[in-house]
Amino acid sequence: MSASYIIVDVKVTDPERYDQYKALAPAAVAAAGGEFVVRGGKHATLEGNWRPTRLVVLRFPSYEQARAFYDSTLYEQAREQRAGATEFFNMVVVELPAPPSVPHGANRRTVAAHAAKRVILNARTE
């Protein structure tokens, strides 16, 4: 099971109505095991033509839990409050790749240390 992120780009046109959505959404996120990672804030486009206005990033333990959040009755109620409050509201869910397997008897710190040594040794031989 891999963590998943929901990424939202939204342009708010009615802040008071959007505040009603923001009041309901956190309960729906928490009920599905999610958490807010980013909720607005300073940002900059580093490459390309994308010009987001407000970014929100949510983290969930799994892709299934992220989808359960979106499909939940709690979030449906929040979406109803958001209606008419935005010019656009783009949302995607992204599942992270599964972490590399750890050999029997090793821990992730040991595996990471060996990987770092290989990178250093490879850099020295180039």
Characterization of this structure:
The chain is an alpha+beta fold and 126 residues long. It has a 4-stranded antiparallel β-sheet with strand order 2-3-1-4. It has 2 domains: 92 residues, Alpha-Beta Plaits, CATH 3.30.70.100; 29 residues, no CATH class. It has 4 helices and 4 strands.
Q: Which characteristics define this entry?
A:
single chain; 126 residues; alpha+beta; Alpha-Beta Plaits; 2 domains; four-stranded antiparallel beta sheet; 43% helix; 25% strand; globular; disordered C terminus
CATH topology of the largest domain: Alpha-Beta Plaits
CATH class of the largest domain: Alpha Beta
Count of beta strands:
4
CATH architecture of the largest domain: 2-Layer Sandwich
Approximate helicity band: 40-55%
**What is the molecular shape?**
globular
Radius of gyration: 20 Å
Structural class: alpha+beta
Q: Major sheet, described briefly?
A: 4 strands, antiparallel
Protein topology:
Layout: E1 4-12, H1 15-31, E2 35-39, E3 54-60, H2 63-71, H3 73-82, E4 86-95, H4 108-125
Structure, briefly:
By secondary structure, the chain is an alpha+beta fold. It has helices at residues 15-31, 63-71, 73-82, 108-125, and strands at residues 4-12, 35-39, 54-60, 86-95.
